Structure formats: C-alpha cells, structure tokens
UniProtKB/TrEMBL annotation:
EC main group: oxidoreductase
Protein name: SDR family NAD(P)-dependent oxidoreductase
Keyword Oxidoreductase: yes
Organism whose genome encodes this protein: Negadavirga shengliensis
Regions annotated as coiled coil: none
Lineage, highest ranks first: Bacteria, Pseudomonadati, Bacteroidota, Cytophagia, Cytophagales
PANTHER family registered for this protein in UniProt: ALCOHOL DEHYDROGENASE
Cross-referenced SUPFAM superfamilies: NAD(P)-binding Rossmann-fold domains
Length: 264
C-alpha cells in the first residue's frame, strides 16, 4: 500500500506560511499545518479545501515550548503520518534599540527562530531520509547576509538559520534530502509589516514582494535543489553587491538606514 506523504509547514495560519500552504496544495501535496492556537489555521484549511482536494491536518502548537517539537513528532508516529517535506517557516522579529526590547521577547525569538527550527529538523530527519527524495526549506531572511543595527537579535537568528542550513545541506548531499535556505527581503504580510516597510520608505517598497510570490519561488527552487534562494532580481543583486562593500562602511550605511526603527 502506498503511504500518504505530507508537507509539514510551521506558521501556516497567515503570511508567508499560509502562502506556502496554498502553493503546496496547488501542487497536490497533503498538508500538516502548524500555528498557535487561534482560528487562523482552521480558516486556512477551509480556504484551501475550497480550491484544492488535498488532505489537510491542522495542529495548534506553541513551538516556543520546550516539549512542543518532540510532541509533534510523536503525534506523527502515532498517527502514521509520513512527512517528506519540512518547511520551517514560523518565526518572529522585533526592531528597536537592543536594550529597549524585553528579555522575554528575545527568549521567545531565540526559542522559535532557532531552537524549534533546529529540533524539528533533528527529529524529522530520519523520517525524511527514509522517505527520500525529501526536502527541507528553512526560512532565513535577506538580512542574514548583512547584520542589521536595531534588529540585531533577529538578524542573528536568521544568520544561524542560514549557516545551519548550508552546513546541513552539504552533510546530506549524499542521501537525497535537499536543503534550501530562503532569504526574502521585505514581504507584505500584515499591517505591522506594512508599517515597518513604510518607515524605511521607498527603498523598501522597491524590493517588497507578496507572500504568494515568495512561496512560489521558494518551493520551485527547493524542488530544483537550489541551496540559497533570494527571491526577486533586485534583492538578489543587492545581496551580491553588499558582499563587495567593506564591512565598516556597510555597517555605517545600514545603521543610518535602519535608525528609523528606533522611532517605532
Ligand atoms: N514578512 C517579512 O517581511 C519577512 C521577510 C523575511 C523573512 N521573513 C520570515 O518569514 C517567516 C514568516 O514571516 P511572516 O511575516 O509571514 O510571519 P507572520 O505573518 O507573523 O506569521 C507568523 C506565523 O507563525 C505562527 N507562529 C508565531 N509564533 C508561533 C509559535 N510560537 N508557535 C507556532 N506558530 C507560531 C503564526 O501563528 P498564529 O497566526 O497562530 O499567531 C503565524 O502562522 C518568519 O520566519 C520571518 O522571520 C519574513
């Protein structure tokens, strides 16, 4: 009997994660969708089911919790759910002067952006290997390529995701589990995001993308086996150009540009 395979997407109730869910459903993939307990997940499921006939399981889990990832893995084993694609999308950020953001926010950010992503990869890897060809897409950010003043911890977490993904990709190159790291610039996901984009001004608007575009580019490149994915031609060019700048000068320019975050 053929086993039913699922794509596990974290943070699937809104924003880019929801767009990933639509993108994967449009390609006939069954979905295991994770987000915090609220109505968003069920709404996403309903909307997808109106357009695509794939199986969708939703689970409300707080991935900041220490035991959450292990419980999610145990649930999959108990229910005989096979995951052959893992999209580690859930993440949170905060902008402002380092010392003015609460330590609770930093703790949540580190737990969600780093620990949950790492442990999901760790627990599901044997299953992915067993059901190869399999895929892992880790959500970093364009900012992983240049540290941003006033978003220092967020940028640090995305740097972790970037480095971890590239290193793991090489380790797994012999076993048909493809790893990609997605590095979007600004994406218009919610009203807070719009405020941040407006604060930085026209430069941010020029490189802004919609969640559906990012999800499509992400999944396309993951399936093609691309390692680093920077959606958008301008964004890709900026990343390349930034590498040519001396670090000191680059950091001074970025500090000027992102000082606006201290007013919001
Ligand atoms: N938006 C951008 O401009 C941008 C740019 C580059 C990279 N990224 C990265 O892309 C990813 C998605 O960003 P987004 O803007 O789409 O985010 P978003 O709109 O804020 O959505 C976040 C998603 O993650 C879920 N989530 C939050 N905390 C969680 C937790 N503790 N446990 C489980 N699920 C949790 C949310 O669930 P609820 O709905 O239940 O709260 C929601 O589904 C993040 O990793 C972000 O860093 C975003």
């Amino acid at each position: 009997m053929e086993v039913k395979k699922f794509t596990l997407i974290t943070g699937a109730s809104m924003g880019i994660g929801k767009a990933f869910a639509f993108e994967c459903a449009s390609r006939g993939m069954n979905l295991l969708l994770i987000a915090l307990p609220d109505d968003g997940l069920e709404e996403t499921k309903k909307q997808i089911n109106l357009r695509f006939s794939v199986e969708i399981i939703t689970l409300a889990i707080d991935l900041r919790d220490h035991e959450a990832v292990r419980s999610l893995y145990d649930y999959c084993i108990q229910q005989n759910l096979v995951v052959n694609m893992l999209i580690n999308n859930a993440g949170m950020g905060a902008g402002g002067k380092f010392e003015e953001i609460s330590h609770e926010i930093y703790t949540d950010m580190l737990h969600l952006n780093i620990r949950a992503l790492t442990m999901l990869t760790y627990h599901f890897l044997p299953m992915l290997k067993q059901h190869a060809p399999a895929f892992i897409l880790n959500m970093s950010s364009m900012e992983a390529n240049f540290p941003l003043p006033y978003k220092s911890v967020y940028t640090g977490t995305k740097n972790f995701v970037y480095a971890f993904s590239l290193a793991l990709r090489e380790e797994l190159s012999h076993c048909n589990v493809k790893v990609s790291v997605l590095c979007p610039g600004p994406v218009l996901t919610n009203s807070d995001g719009l405020k941040r984009i407006n604060a930085v001004g026209n430069r941010a608007k020029m490189i802004m993308l919609m969640p559906a575009e990012v999800a499509k580019i992400g999944v396309n490149n993951l399936l093609k086996g691309q390692g680093i994915v920077v959606p958008g031609k301008i964004n890709w060019t900026i990343v390349k150009l930034m590498k040519l700048f001396p670090t000191g000068l680059k950091m001074k320019l970025l500090e000027r540009l992102f000082r606006v975050y201290t007013d919001h």
